[in-house]
Amino acid sequence: MSWENIQLGSVIDFSNGFAFKSAFFTDNKSDIPLVKGENLGKGEVLWEMSKYWKNDNMTNGIEKFFLNANDIILAMDRPYVGGGLKFAMIKEDSPRALQVQRIGRLVAKETRITPLFLKCIIGSFDFLNYIKNIQGGVGVPHISPAQIKGFEFDLPPLPTQKRIASILSAYDDSIENNLKRIKLLEETAQNIYKEWFVHFRFPNYEHTAFDAESGLPVGWDKKSLNNFNCIFQFKEKVRPFTDEKEYLATANIDGINIYERGEYFTFYNKPSRAQYLAPQESVWFAKMSKTYKVILFTKSSNNDILLSSGFVGFVPISSDFLPFLFCLINNKLFFDTKDLFCTGSTQVSLNNESISKLIFIEPNLEIITEFGNIVYPLIEQINKLFELNQKLKEARDILLPRLMNRTIEV
Fold this sequence. Notes:
30% of the residues lie in helices and 20% in strands. It is an alpha+beta fold. It folds into 2 domains: 4-155, Alpha-Beta Complex (Adenine-n6-DNA-methyltransferase TaqI, Chain A, domain 2); 178-390, Alpha-Beta Complex (Adenine-n6-DNA-methyltransferase TaqI, Chain A, domain 2). A 4-stranded antiparallel beta sheet has the order 2-11-6-9, covered by helices on one side. Helix 4 runs antiparallel to helix 8. The model has no long low-confidence stretch (mean pLDDT 90).
């Protein structure tokens, strides 16, 4: 059977989400997660960034907005961000979630197209470029259901669809497994951090004297983050360079670490917001309010990356202190504290003055060093898995158009 040129609308059922009232959103993880623009990433739902809807607030008709396994969801406002498309496929083990307004749902008509092949179409460069070129709007770029359904592509027979999807799914499965390993490593590091520096159950804590006034172990202190003895805030602006370097804005980051490759620039044509040349062994976070994004650079990381002025960076004075710095910043308490001091009318974020108000506990250097000796191998492994996922994504993205345009026969 031959391939057939069709419009996307002929092989899917499309529906919009519901206008859930933000006044009734919760942060209670026992409620129902909502999928909205803020927690729909580039290829995945960022469940840890979800808002929630009360279980007892299910009025008539809302049930139809529950998402199902194999649904493809696509952001209709700001669909193209940081070089990538905001879409995802709902998995069998995904939380039972509700679809919010301006999130489009694409359901495959399985007699014509398989769900996994539909995911390949939505994840293709052709569809991404199509969306990038048709999105309209003065303030907020957006797309319409008609535009989504109007995308044209060549549809192969179902057996060919299944073979193509099987090849590409192998890459996605490897990426997913690596993400699970990363999550376990992060949880292990954070659990040790909480045990030592929140619950004060560090090695030999039973024989440690505590200060009666502060309630902290003797030698520990509460102070502004940029006054810690073990770290310093990185403020050095980028200097002239001759070769091309990769530029990352906050949009290139989903949650923890680099999600999408940035663009490459020379010093003379770099964006004005490209202000920092990130050193190895540093931790950076997005300074905007309600934005949970972190980049970790270890001693094996690429150090030719330009970062946007939307990031704030800290560098340990010793390799031994990097794990403590990473666990301190990659922490809900840190971001909740950061948000308390964000200011501004157009863009609410930290500034130089408010950064000095971020007060945390600094243990003595000996215990920070001991923590680093245990946890550094974990964060090195985290970064290696992120880098491996980048290579897997790049290999998959090279293979996809070749399969779709029949350069490679299957």
